[in-house]
Structure formats: C-alpha cells, structure tokens
C-alpha cells in the first residue's frame, strides 16, 4: 500500500524565510559522496579540518570547537546542560522567542533564572547588562541572543564579554542566525560559549550545530560537582571523540559533515569579511525596495539584522493570504511572525546562498503585484 | 591558511563494519534535492508519508512513530528520558556494550536499575526474564537489545512482550542493527517502545533514529509526574510537530529526511520479508566462506545476527594489522571488538546496500590473501 508513495517530487522553492536557507549547490553535490567509517584515518583527518575551518569562521582559537549532532536547539541545550548546575544563577536577556527558549532550558537544568526584559525587537545596552549582573551576584552564566530570528534584531556584543567577566560570569551567545552573516568575533569579544546552526548563513542543510567553548568554560565544565544530566550532548564525552583519544560516543552524520565542511570552505573562499559585507549590502537593497513599496520595517536601522529582515504587514493586507500567494504563484517562501508579532510582521531571510540581489528583486516585484491587487 | 584545505576527496571504501553501511545510490541522489521549508504544505505531506512508510517497516500501527533528530543513541536517550521518572525500577538485559549504555542512561534519568547479566554474546531466555521481572516488582520498563552490535548476537523477542505486560512493565527494544535486516514485528510481538538508526540496515546516512511508542506507553508519557528533563528529545513537544498541530519545535534535517524516505521506499519496494531473507542468505554465505578459511564464528548459529557477524581472530594473527591491511590494500572497512572482546573478534556488517554477495566474495578472498602470508 505505502508502495504507492511516489519518487520524491518537491516543488522548487526560493527559501527566503528564517531558515533553512537555500543550500549552496556545491554543498549538495559534496553530500552525494560515498561514506567512510567514523574511525577511518581519513575521516579523522576530515574532523581536524572541519574544526580548523570552524575556528576560522568563529574567529576563535578555542580547542573545544566542533559541531553538535543536532539543530541549533541542540546547541542551545548543550550550553545549558553542560555549564549550568542546580542552583546556579543564570541571567538571560529576554527580547524575543529564542531567549524564552533559553529560559525554559536553563530552568530544566535547575538554574535560578533572572530575566532582563525588553520588548520584542529591542536590544540591551551595556549599562542595563552591568546593572543586571551587579544585582544578581554571583552569576554563573549570562546569555544573549546575537541575532533574534523572531524579531530581526541584532544585539551589539562588543564590550559584553568584559562586563560579564568583571562580574565573574561566563558569556553565552546564540549566533544561530548570525554566524558568517554578520560580524562575530568570539575571542576578540570575550565570548565564552557560542552555538550556531548549519542551515542559516552557512548555507548547509539543517542537522548540525557549530559549538565553541573557551578555556575558562572548559575548566568549569571539568570541575562540575554533578555529572552532565544529558548523555547525547555531554561535552565531556564528546570532546574525547573530537579532541582527545577518539573514543567513540555516537556515530557522526558523515554526510552532514561532508556538507558542512564544504559550506565552511565556501565561507572562507569568499572571505569572512566580504561575506559579512555581502549580507549587509543585499539586506540594505531589500530595505530600500520594501520602503519603495511603502512598507515599514519593524526594527530601527541601527539594530537591524542583515540576515533576517522583519517587514510590518501593511494595514488591510491579509498576512497569511499574501504568504500563501507568494508560495503558490511565485514559489517564494517567507515566514510570518509569532507570539506577540503574529500577523504583524513578515520575516524575510537573506542568508548564505539565499543572500543574492536577484532574489530581492524578484521578491519585491512579486510583493508589489500581490499588494497592488492580486494580479 | 585554512583555505588550503582541499576539495573533499575521500577514498572509496567498502563499508563492511558495524555502520555506517554503504548508502544506496538512490538515497544519495535523492538527498541532493533542493530544500523546502519546515512548514511548507508539501513538507508536511512528506512527513505524513515518511511516518506511513516507517510504520510499515516497523510493522506497527502506532501513531507516535517518527524519526528522532539524532543517531541511535539519541533514540535510546529518548526512551529513557521520556518513560523513566526518578525512582522507577528498570530491568535491563546486560549482555554487551549497548546494554551497558542503556544502564548508564537509565541511571542518568534516576532509574533504579536492576541488571540481568549474561556473558557478552549470550542471549536471554523467557524463563530468565520471567524470573527477573517477578523478583523486582513493580517494574516500569524492561529493556533488551534485539541486535547487539558489539557481539553479533540476536535476542529472540517473541513472547517477551507478553511476559513484560503480565508484570506490568513496558517492553523497550533497541533495534538499531536489526530494523529491516531481521524479522521484527512491533505490534505482533507486543513491543511498547523501539528505536533504530538510519545508517544500518536502512542504508541511509547516520543522523536519524526511527522511533515508535505504543498507546500504553504514550498514556504513561502523558501521565508523568515531572516534566521530561530533556528539551531536544521531549516527545510531548515532538509529537505536537509530527502528530498534532504542527507546532514548531526544532528545524528537522530536511535532507536527511529526504534520504530516509527514499531508504524506506527501497525497503518496501524490495519487500520487508524478502529483505530479511536477503540479509540472512548473504550472512549465511559469509559464515560458509569464513568457515572455509578455517575461521571460527563467535556466536553459535541459532543466535547469530544476519546483519553483523563476529569472526574470531585466529591464533597468530594480529587483529589490527589485518584490518589495516584490508583497509589500505583493499579499501575494505571492517571493525575490531571492544571491551572484553578487544583483539578477539572482527565485526563484519552486511547491512542494507552493503548486504551483497559480491562484497562477501571480495572480503573473504582478501582475508585469505592476508592470512596466507600478507601477499
């Protein structure tokens, strides 16, 4: 019966949502390579190469730098299950959906969560962070979302590491939607812990979460009082496979790693800074085109993410109907808002291979046609 | 500097180890398909199809049947973090490496673990299970490894569900190395919980863990006293995306799912029973060839796995040197033993697309050349 299920025959969509973004053709091609075993010497060399590439993209020298076998949320959980113990104070900057997820996970691992709150779309100043950390001493971990995919806001990070460290806290940063799409300098900015995702600005399929932890964080990990209460994401076990004696933990997804290695090579071939400039330039073109259509952007210019733009749904337009028409008539995929922004914004991602001038030209003309009267 | 890292250029290996097995070319080809978004109506249909295919392969009607976003170990952890609460008694049949992993995970989630022990390579009888469950009442969960990859033993499962249920326990089965490679009937055999892996007999890349849970197990899940203490693997959140209102949890790995869907179609095209017969026939050919070389098999015939055969390293042969020569001169990948079997056995996997007569012919002739004096 189920044999009647056909060959895979998915429509070709232009992916301009919050991710997955379009995967670069070279990445897809590389992923058709036949597999090798996870202890093959050739595979072990590939792991070293992937880590070297990832350190360059993260702008770090951290030894503990490798992809977690899961999506960005698995990377987030890796941070909380390894670096939080019951009773630890964790301060979280709450200004969107993914910071709420952080609060949920931190509590799951026993943290005493202290929230600093801003409206969805706002960002935190150094003074606000300084005050929150001073008021909650001692703080084990202070967490911020660099690129908030639910709002389109870019949190400035320079100086935050210094403040966190002055208060004895580790700085954790979610850079799921910023890695290689916006300036991010793990070592220079004093970021102790960061996680990202393969399917955003890196232009690879979902399924891997690049992760990095600095020396001080690793020391804290090794001095834990209790065992890490999560087996699959336990960094003390994972680092034995990635960084030490190659002790088997779980079978890595060979094919996803082939793809990520190719995606990281593409980043460095383009040049990390040139890639940041491209993401910014294509985003600015989108902002211009949206404003030319009379549409308002949700985030004020100085805090806008280059990789994800939030456009206010104009009065009189039906949010879902416009997106359905975009998908059905033009094969363009963008997303709506959720939580307090449901029905109020469209989320347009221009990440990795999706960040191309012609995609913006097409999207804005399609939007014009739809808004001008569903031609 | 890292730009000097070359194009991916891995050697072509014949994968005859414990997994990953060779990925079917149609699966790799399918995975080069461009991605769609995770809420695209076309994607949601694919999810339904993947679940229907998976139910057929598991031989179950269970609603909660979908792949977990991780490898087999993530599937194992899913079972323990969702169905065990602190203080629950869990009985585990311990006769190899992966049952030790089960004990570790069960303890991590607060279980009172009762081990039934057998030597590595032995299997449990119904009488032994009956006695263990009677001695440890009340038992929440009873766990067995169907196909123990560290030893090559196949645990008979018929009747075990009935015994478990008579004692009020759920039956959990690890079928990582058996799903579609050996007879397995989830519903008929009364198995309440099972997990597998994509990279074994299903012939797909690693990264997904097919999972199924019966009605009684799902009721127990919904009646938990405490929240599931693992966010990424929380089935109460995952089922909302897979089975209910499509609430976003984490971004699924589109590309791995494309591949798994194709792998499952290949299973059903061949026919599940024909596929079991093929795995058994090719394994029997291997057993014959190994015995013709004067090699002993570690597991006695009636308990041998069709998907993974353990061959005793003959006196005078250097375990590692033989495997290195196989890899370097013939591009054949097999594995050694570990734990108490380190240096004593070779592990030869014949799974999915690797389960082919010509692979056995080649391996046995290569082994003959090496053992006959390293020609």
Task: Give the tags.
Aspartate Aminotransferase, domain 2, 15% strand, homodimer, seven-stranded mixed sheet, 39% helix, three-stranded antiparallel sheet, 375 residues
Could you write a compact summary of the structure shown?
2 copies of one chain form a homodimer. Chain A is of the alpha/beta class and about 375 residues long.
Description:
The structure is a homodimer. Chain A has about 375 residues and is an alpha/beta fold. Chain A has two domains: about 15-20 and about 270-370, Aspartate Aminotransferase, domain 1 (Alpha-Beta Complex), CATH 3.90.1150; about 25-270, Type I PLP-dependent aspartate aminotransferase-like (Major domain) (Aspartate Aminotransferase, domain 2, 3-Layer(aba) Sandwich). Chain A contains twelve helices and 14 strands. In chain A, the strands form four sheets. In chain A, strands 2-10-9-8-5-3-4 form a seven-stranded mixed sheet, sandwiched between helices. In chain A, strand 13 and strand 14 form a beta hairpin. In chain A, helix 11 crosses helix 12 (about 355-370). Chains A and B meet through helix 1, helix 2, helix 3, helix 4 and helix 9 of A and helix 1, helix 2, helix 3, helix 4 and helix 9 of B.
């Amino acid at each position: 019966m189920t044999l009647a299920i056909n060959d895979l025959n998915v429509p070709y969509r232009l992916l301009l949502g919050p991710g997955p973004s379009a995967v670069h053709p070279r990445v897809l091609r590389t992923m058709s390579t036949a597999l090798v075993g996870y202890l093959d010497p050739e595979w072990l060399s590939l792991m070293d190469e992937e880590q070297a590439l990832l350190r360059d993209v993260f702008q770090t020298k951290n030894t503990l730098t490798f992809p977690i076998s899961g999506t960005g949320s698995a990377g987030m959980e890796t941070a909380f299950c390894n670096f939080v113990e019951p009773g630890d104070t964790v301060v979280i900057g709450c200004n969107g959906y993914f910071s709420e997820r952080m609060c949920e996970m931190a509590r799951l691992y026993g943290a005493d969560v202290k929230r600093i709150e801003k409206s969805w779309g706002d960002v935190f100043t150094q003074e606000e962070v300084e005050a929150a950390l001073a008021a909650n001493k001692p703080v084990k971990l202070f967490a911020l979302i660099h690129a908030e995919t639910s709002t389109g806001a870019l949190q400035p990070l320079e100086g935050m590491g210094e403040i966190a460290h002055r208060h004895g806290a580790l700085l954790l940063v979610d850079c799921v939607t910023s890695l290689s799409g916006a300036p991010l300098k793990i070592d220079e900015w004093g970021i102790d812990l960061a996680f990202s995702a393969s399917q955003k600005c890196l232009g690879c399929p979902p399924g891997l979460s690049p992760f990095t932890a600095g020396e001080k964080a690793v020391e804290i990990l090794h001095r834990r009082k209790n065992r890490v209460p999560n087996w699959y994401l336990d960094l003390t076990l994972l680092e034995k496979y990635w960084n030490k004696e190659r002790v088997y933990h779980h079978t890595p997804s060979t094919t996803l790693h082939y793809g990520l290695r190719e995606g990281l090579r593409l980043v460095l071939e383009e040049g990390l800074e040139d890639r940041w400039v491209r993401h910014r330039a294509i985003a600015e073109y989108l902002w211009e085109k949206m404003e030319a259509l009379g549409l308002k952007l949700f985030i004020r210019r100085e805090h806008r993410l280059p990789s994800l733009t939030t456009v206010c749904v104009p009065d009189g337009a039906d949010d879902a109907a416009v997106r359905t028409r975009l998908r059905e008539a033009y094969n363009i995929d963008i997303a709506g808002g959720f939580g307090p922004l449901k029905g109020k914004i469209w989320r347009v991602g221009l990440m990795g291979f999706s960040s191309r001038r012609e995609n913006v030209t097409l999207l804005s003309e399609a939007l014009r046609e739809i808004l001008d009267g569903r031609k």
